[in-house]
Amino acid sequence: MQTLQANTMVDREREPGLRFYLRREPLILALLCALAVVSFLAVSGLARIYRAQQESLGNRWFTRGVTDLKERQYERAVSEFRTALLYSRDNYTYQLNLAEALIGMKRPNEAYAYLINLWEREPENGLVNLELARIAVQRGEIEKALRYYHNSIYAIWRGNREEERQNARLELIEYLLSINAKTQAQAELIALAENLGDDPSQHAHVGDLFVRAQDYEHALAEYRQSLKLDRHNAAALAGAGLAAFELGRYELAQRYLEAAVAANPSDLQSAERLKTTELVLKMDPYRRQISVGQRRRMVIEAFATAGERLKSCSAVGSSRATGSATTSQESLADRWAKMKPQITEQGLRQNPDLVEAAMNLVFDIERQANAGCGPPTGIDMALLLISKLHEGN
Question: How far is 1 from 101, CA to CA, in rounded Å?
């Protein structure tokens, strides 16, 4: 009983302090919460400052690296990009630029390690696919190179997407031409030509690529489009002349080549091609616009020229005819000597069928001489081109 009274007295003594605490508890809790918030904000602020400093340092080194990469200072760029990555290890752009610098240093294996990781993160990234294509080219991996090039053409590009895709396709075309895949290059060029704008230099450049791919019909079309936009473009005039020449359209070639030489007198190739074109037009006895007399004179000159070619090319003298209608096994020299007395103005007038026979022999001689003694020049070249023009007729 005494113990109970004692406890009761103690509780009464403590009651004022307890009531004081209970009245102050919300304030204390509020103060503690405020202190926690302030501490959290302080830590967050310090963390943001730290991250900002890290980002600033990374950007500073990255900017230096970009400058050196543009100036092809690849070794310095690699060092600077790697330093930038110390401050932002997973930065996609930093890793991509580092890979480009490594490719510049001819270290494709290291670059590939970065690029394939980036490709797994963004398989639709155009630049990553393009760089992987370039590495595949360096390694001689044709199928991979083609796959990555096509990926880059149809991938996502930042900035001017159409220009980047066009550049990627142009690079693919250059690669296809370098491995002599002309048919594939032609297909890519046709796709490229469909999306060209109104820049005459672009059409002329694509025309040049068609020429390299030996697609002269499309090349001529591109040069003509270029000339519609700029009729004084000397390069396009020369290209159109070349394409028409290769197509055997010599009258058209003559017009373009004359304009090309007039626009650029130092264009020696076009000047030489123009001379050959003029000889073809002068020496072709099958042209419809010429008279019978002109035809006979052309045949006589062609026959004499073929005789000189026989004398200068010993590999032809004993050759047997293979391309003409005759079944004779006489040598070309024997056939020429046997026909020579008849190839005169009077002989051709009396026997018009000799025109065909004489020209067949001329073509046989020029073809055999081309195979046995190398490419001809001058009138012999013109006669060889005429033979190709009328081959099978």
Answer: 93
